[in-house]
Amino acid sequence: MAEKNIKITLVRSVAGSTPRQRATVKGLGLGKMHSSVVQAATPSILGMVRTVAHMVKVEEI
User: Fold this and answer.
1) Is the model's pLDDT at 1 over the cut of 60?
2) Beta-bridge partner residues of 39
3) Residue range 16-20: average pLDDT?
4) Domains (range + CATH), the chain
5) How far out from the chain centre does Cα 41 lie?
6) Closest CA to 60 of 8, 12, 2
7) Which pLDDT does position 2 carry in this prediction?
8) Model's pTM, two decimal places?
9) 57 three-class SS
10) Among 23, 40, 49, 50, which is most buried by a count of CB atoms within 10 Å?
11) Closest C-alpha among 1, 7, 2, 11 to residue 60
């Protein structure tokens, strides 16, 4: 079974967020606002996305 890829884009600033949320955004490979990364849709990545769901936009590729 081929893994699906997702594109994750940071749409809200990390200013005012908790240290855990900041670490999660950094762990996903995101830096500045509107930066995007493509990641495999693994359970660990999806869990990280769920943690910062209010700050990111996710698209299936």
Assistant:
1) no
2) 6
3) 96
4) 5-60 (3.30.1390.20)
5) 11
6) 8
7) 67
8) 0.91
9) strand
10) 49
11) 7
